[in-house]
Design goal:
237 residues; mainly alpha; 3-stranded antiparallel β-sheet; 14 helices; 3 strands; globular
Length: 237
């Protein structure tokens, strides 16, 4: 418990997480060092996520190189983001272990704030740090590419939600899309800022999918998309 509290201040053993913690200890055969390494992963994972990833315990408990993503890269996110979001946008060329260590390092430095939503760990950045990170990314001429990858990732996320909407996963998708509302908005605004027909078409498709998938982000962007399309259709504008 002391190790867990050191990794995640405020961590408590509760009736809800006790079975998961017990299974983790059983999977690691009660060995002190593997358990200590697993506890360190609580900075970037929930206890449920740790247990899920123990199918390959050697990879999960391997300490990576603590490389990228940097604060500049994670500044591309708006609001909260999850581990797979970071992997899809900032984790190019990185191993899962390096990504976990990098996020844990950013939490250690208070650059990222760790939050739990159900059984999922989310991260967010204070707005002042986010603005600073974006300035650094722009100075390094990498922000435009980060925004493009951000858009592409969330467009795929909405497509996946639409595909699984009429299924047993619907409630999970409702929760996920609401949690990702700010990022979906940013992705749509990025495409709306494009000055070509392909950008507008992409925005229309993504807006429709947000509507189909029940995301509240769609309403505020639908009017903006429609206005741009209407203005482009009028001669002399």
């Amino acid at each position: 418990m002391e190790r867990a509290t050191a990794a995640v201040p405020g961590f408590e053993l509760t009736d809800e997480n006790r079975p998961t913690i017990t299974r983790i200890c059983q999977r690691l055969e009660g060995l002190p060092l593997p358990i200590e390494l697993a506890v360190a992963r609580l900075q970037a994972l929930s206890s449920d996520q740790v247990l899920q990833r123990l199918t390959d315990r050697h990879r999960l408990l391997t300490v990576g190189s603590r490389g990228a993503p940097t604060r500049a890269q994670v500044s591309v996110f708006a609001g909260v983001f999850e581990l797979d979001d970071a992997n899809g946008i900032c984790g190019l060329g990185m191993s899962p272990e390096d990504l976990l260590d990098a996020l844990a390092s950013l939490v250690d430095k208070s650059i990222l704030i760790r939050e739990e939503s159900g059984t999922t760990v989310c991260f967010r950045m204070l707005e002042t740090l986010r603005e600073y990170g974006r300035e650094k990314a722009e100075d390094a001429a990498e922000f435009a590419d980060l925004r493009r990858r951000h858009h592409d990732w969330y467009q795929r996320l909405v497509v996946e939600a639409e595909t699984e909407w009429i299924s047993a996963y619907q409630l999970e998708w409702i929760t996920r899309l609401e949690r990702e509302n700010s990022n979906l908005r940013e992705a749509l605004e990025f495409r709306l800022a494009g000055d070509d027909d392909a950008a507008i078409e992409s925005s229309l498709i993504m807006t429709r999918r947000c509507c189909c998938s029940g995301s509240s982000v769609a309403g505020s962007t639908k009017d903006a998309t429609g206005s741009i399309v209407h203005s482009r259709a009028r001669p002399g504008i």
